[in-house]
Design a protein that fits this description.
This protein has five helices and three strands; from the N terminus they run E-E-H-E-H-H-H-H. By secondary structure, it is mainly alpha-helical. The termini are far apart.
Length: about 120
């Protein structure tokens, strides 16, 4: 379940919980059983933050174990690495699948550079 905090402090259940939780413009709390997709959702959220020009060194993800942190990094780098090699149409579809938009060549170039940017961050 994803609950989204509204400006007035109210809580609503999101219509599409994965897209809602990965939206960097929202504050989201995700509660789910093991294997339900929390890491996938968090990787998409970080990807969207990077695509929206957030500085990688300003993003903090908390986990309970080092193994979970390593898995998060592996998934994020895997996704960004794939993006760096995709053809334009496929890359645009991948970006749309996480709820972001890449409508021009500059956006696609930016998406392809995210992997190198993430690798260069200490």
């Amino acid at each position: 379940m994803v609950r989204d905090r509204l400006g007035g402090g109210g809580v609503v259940t999101a219509h599409d919980p994965v897209l809602a939780a990965s939206d960097p413009a929202r504050s989201a709390w995700v509660a789910a059983n093991a294997g339900a997709g929390k890491t996938h959702t968090l990787a998409n959220r970080v990807t969207r933050l990077l695509f929206a020009d957030a500085r990688p060194e300003r993003i903090l993800c908390l986990t309970f174990t080092k193994a979970a942190a390593a898995e998060m990094q592996r998934r994020l780098f895997g996704q960004l690495g794939r993006w760096s090699m995709l053809a334009d149409a496929e890359l645009a579809r991948n970006i749309a699948a996480i709820g972001a938009e890449a409508t021009d060549a500059a956006s696609l170039r930016k998406a392809r550079r995210l992997f190198a940017q993430a690798l260069e961050t200490p």
